[in-house]
């Protein structure tokens, strides 16, 4: 297929994104030297934000391998490109491992631990070497799963190997278990231990659900852009968007359900070991952000997505999903920035970091999309939709 | 989804004949007899309870919630599979739900009835149970709206109402079929009244579909909300082992887990006894096995988090609760629960196990036992060892506790056997749409 306007367009976006990523990273580098504490807080938030669609892509592909469904075939390639970014995210975590631990986590300071009986108890888990080993192990597991999925899918596409499909299915079951467990502990390590006295058993699942939600939203936004061009306008159908809209709504509800349950249980328990975490986040100027989350991470998308026509109209759904995607950042910011009781503040780095990391992420994402059929030819034939698989 | 060789007529004949035939198989009488015998046990236990009071139970001072709460949670959890199968799987267009939804819904209603008995009896004076409802009264007393026990009243009663409505509406077209096919006058009249004048007109179907879909949408949040509120009964308190934020999703998953296990426990003997292997196929059983495996893993996740955070929290009460569970007086219950709920179900990863009817039946029973033990461990271990060692005490159910529990199983069996004999246990009209060549609803 000759280069299409769409292909050129994507190439342009890829270059721009890369440029934004590089320039943004350089700016952040300056920030890192002027205010390291702020830099690592912003960087961690942005890192967790873009980790969402990376691991979420992996998880949703594995989920789709188990359940099937037309919606999954429609966005499969987008998700594969997303999970190809696992190595990139691994690379982006290196600065945190090398320089960030001391700035982010008070448990890493020997003098703080020496004066704190609780931290001494937790030192067996919260210490630099073990933290590092765990992080390496998480990324190894995620990279292995992503690699396996991409490779098996490629084998299936090339030779229509049913064996590859079967293998993919059997890896997916175990892979989901591994993903949920590793991501939960990653959330405890990277997010929860910023306030090392606090704990909540549902915290990991809130991250897992958030990642699924971020992925679906990003996939809808990208798909709705692609669907304006031939031949994707024939590939994506209203029913795909309808199903995706239902899934987005389910994840929005799940997120709200878990977040609210956590709040209610901690509020009614009112224990000194738990309540401060919320007091840090619904006081000190953070309350407006908390209310913003209630409104735009839950209420508005939920009410709009209750309507069937809204889910079938690509444009409306894409706007809602873009909004939720932005709110994903707001939630992570709300989880990370107030740690330790800091009063409300937004640094320029809180704005630049997600854009810089996003630039890198998107440029690699587009690189992953290009050069291979954007629609699995086998799926396309199977569904009787397209005669040939379009390559960007 | 349905064995080959069936036509519209043969599906209708096969299912309706179970209800309409004159002779009743002897096995049915035996089953009903056992059920009724146990209902006798139930009535005895209730009579003794009302006569003497809750002192006949094994409750003591730290352990104020014993069998009554364990059994309540167990039964209500079992009910969840019915609503999940009928509502959520309908919304997700999982067609394999069709042959199992009817009796799963029936199971839900019967299980909720059994569940409801326990809190009613636990209040000691069930004739005053209406005090739980908020209504203006001369004493100017209101229930405590902050208490999840009150939310339970709302959640469970709403759940029971919607489940019953959902079940009944689903039955209407089949009542009409039975009305048209029944030979005996009394049955014609009864089924006719229940069919509400259904003639199968296009307009009837259109409204029916809308109503059914709306109810499915309404029932879906209920599945989640009921067991969430049940988990709040525990989690909003500050008792170690109860106060955990993971409780709501892990309770909901556990409910679905036990519910599917119960559907399996009932479906396997039933399809054999009534020759329904063509409708409840191996594929159905395998799908249910997958749901059991998935929800079982979520439950395992919950246990893992509880154990990890008992240590990570650095809270001495949390860690002593966990070591008490693992190595204390009730360690046998804890490890048996782990064996039943976590270890054994891993066999379901193997396809051979998932497609072996005998193995599935045994596994389903094991899960049923495991889920009962889970509630036993949660209720009893946390209460018996709370904050004050001088107040610690052990707990065991008395004869009357066991009689009440076994009695509700009898009530459940009795209702189930009556249902099988007098109502179509598989949805006839929905099964007809499964016959190849019939047009299916496109894009629900």
What does this molecule look like?
- The complex is a heterodimer of chains A (392) and B (444).
- Chain A is mainly α and 392 residues long.
- Chain A has one domain (45-383).
- Chain A has helices at 5-34, 36-67, 70-83, 86-104, 110-114, 117-122, 128-159, 162-190, 203-226, 232-235, 238-269, 275-281, 287-305, 308-312, 314-336, 348-369, 377-382.
- The longest helix of chain A has 32 residues, at 36-67.
- Chain A is globular, with a radius of gyration of 21 Å.
- In chain A, 45% of the residues are buried.
- By secondary structure, chain B is mainly α.
- Chain B has one domain (8-432): Formate dehydrogenase/DMSO reductase domain (Formate dehydrogenase/DMSO reductase fold).
- Chain B contains 15 helices and no strands.
- In chain B, helix 5 (148-181) runs antiparallel to helix 7, helix 7 crosses helix 8 (247-273) and helix 8 (247-273) runs antiparallel to helix 13 (357-384).
- In chain B, 46% of the residues are buried.
- Residues 440-444 of chain B have low confidence and may be disordered.
- Chains A and B meet through helix 6, helix 8, helix 9 and helix 11 of A and helix 7, helix 8 and helix 9 of B.
């Amino acid at each position: 297929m000759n280069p299409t306007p769409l292909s050129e367009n994507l190439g342009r976006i890829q270059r721009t994104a890369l440029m934004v990523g590089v320039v943004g990273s350089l700016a952040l580098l300056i920030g890192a030297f002027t205010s390291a504490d702020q830099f690592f807080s912003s960087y961690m938030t942005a890192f967790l934000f873009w980790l969402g669609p990376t691991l979420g892509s992996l998880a949703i592909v594995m989920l789709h391998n188990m359940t099937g469904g037309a919606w999954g075939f429609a966005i499969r390639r987008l998700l594969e490109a997303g999970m190809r970014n696992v190595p990139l995210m691994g690379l982006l975590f290196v600065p945190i491992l090398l320089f960030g631990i001391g700035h982010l986590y008070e448990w890493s300071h020997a003098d703080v631990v020496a004066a704190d009986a609780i931290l001494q108890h937790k030192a067996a888990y919260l210490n630099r070497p073990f933290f590092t080993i765990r992080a390496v192990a998480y990324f190894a597991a995620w990279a292995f799963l992503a690699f396996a999925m991409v490779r098996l899918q490629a084998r299936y596409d090339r030779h229509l190997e049913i064996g590859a499909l079967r293998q993919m299915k059997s890896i997916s079951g175990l892979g989901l278990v591994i993903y949920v467990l590793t991501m939960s502990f990653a959330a405890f390590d990277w997010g929860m231990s910023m306030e090392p006295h606090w704990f909540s058993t549902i915290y990991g699942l809130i991250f897992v659900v958030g990642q699924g939600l971020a992925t679906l939203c990003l996939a809808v936004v990208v798909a709705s852009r692609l669907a304006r061009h031939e031949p994707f306008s024939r590939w994506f159908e209203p029913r795909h968007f309808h199903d995706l809209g239902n899934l987005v709504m389910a994840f929005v509800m799940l997120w709200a359900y878990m977040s609210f349950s956590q709040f209610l249980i901690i509020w009614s328990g009112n224990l000194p070991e738990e309540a401060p975490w919320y007091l840090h986040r619904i006081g000190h100027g953070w309350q407006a952000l908390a209310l913003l989350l209630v409104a735009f991470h839950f209420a508005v998308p939920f009410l709009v997505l209750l309507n069937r026509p809204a889910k079938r109209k690509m444009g409306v759904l894409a706007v809602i999903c873009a909004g939720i995607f932005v709110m994903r950042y707001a939630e992570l910011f709300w989880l990370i920035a107030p740690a330790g009781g800091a009063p409300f503040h937004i640094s320029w780095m809180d704005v630049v970091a997600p854009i810089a990391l996003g630039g890198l992420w998107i440029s690699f994402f587009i690189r992953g999309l290009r050069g291979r059929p954007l629609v699995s030819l086998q799926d396309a034939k199977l569904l009787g939709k397209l005669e040939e698989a379009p390559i960007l | 989804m349905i064995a080959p060789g069936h036509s519209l007529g043969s599906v209708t004949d096969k299912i309706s004949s179970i209800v309409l035939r004159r002779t009743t198989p002897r096995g049915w009488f035996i089953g009903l007899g056992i059920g009724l015998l146990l209902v006798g046990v139930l009535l005895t236990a209730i009579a003794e309870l009302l006569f003497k009071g809750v002192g006949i139970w094994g409750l003591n001072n730290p352990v104020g919630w014993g069998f009554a709460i364990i059994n309540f949670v167990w039964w209500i959890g079992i009910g969840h599979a019915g609503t999940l199968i009928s509502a959520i799987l309908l919304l997700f267009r999982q067609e394999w739900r069709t042959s199992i939804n009817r009796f799963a819904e029936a199971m839900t209603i019967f299980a909720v009835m059994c569940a409801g008995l326990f809190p009613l009896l636990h209040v000691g004076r069930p004739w005053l149970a209406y005090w739980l409802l908020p209504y203006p009264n001369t004493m100017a007393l209101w229930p405590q709206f902050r208490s999840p026990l009150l939310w339970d009243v709302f959640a469970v009663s709403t759940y029971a109402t919607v489940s019953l409505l959902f079940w009944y509406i689903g039955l209407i077209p089949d009542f009409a079929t039975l009305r048209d096919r029944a030979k005996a006058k009394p049955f014609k009249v009864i089924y006719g009244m229940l069919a509400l004048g259904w003639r199968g007109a296009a307009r009837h179907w259109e409204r029916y579909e809308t109503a059914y879909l709306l109810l499915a949408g309404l029932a879906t949040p209920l599945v989640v909300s009921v067991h969430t509120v049940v988990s709040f009964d525990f989690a909003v308190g500050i008792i170690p082992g109860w106060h955990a934020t993971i409780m709501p999703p892990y309770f909901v998953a556990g409910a679905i887990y036990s519910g599917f296990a119960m559907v399996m426990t009932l479906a396997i003997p039933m399809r054999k006894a009534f020759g329904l292997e063509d409708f409840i196929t191996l594929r159905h059983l395998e799908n249910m096995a997958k749901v059991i495996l998935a929800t079982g893993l979520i439950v395992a996740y919950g246990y893992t988090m509880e154990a990890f955070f008992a240590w990570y929290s650095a809270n001495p009460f949390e860690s002593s609760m966990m070591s008490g569970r693992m190595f204390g007086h009730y360690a046998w219950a804890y490890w048996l629960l782990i064996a039943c709920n976590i270890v054994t179900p891993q066999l379901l990863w193997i396809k051979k196990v998932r497609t072996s009817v005998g193995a599935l039946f045994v596994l389903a029973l094991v899960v049923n036992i495991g889920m009962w033990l889970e509630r036993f461990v949660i209720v009893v271990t946390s209460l018996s060892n709370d904050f004050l060692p001088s107040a610690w005490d052990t707990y065991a159910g008395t004869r009357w506790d066991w009689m009440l529990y076994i009695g509700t199983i009898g009530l459940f069996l009795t209702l189930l056997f009556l249902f099988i004999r007098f109502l179509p246990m598989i949805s006839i009209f929905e099964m007809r749409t499964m016959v190849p060549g019939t047009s299916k609803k496109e894009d629900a």
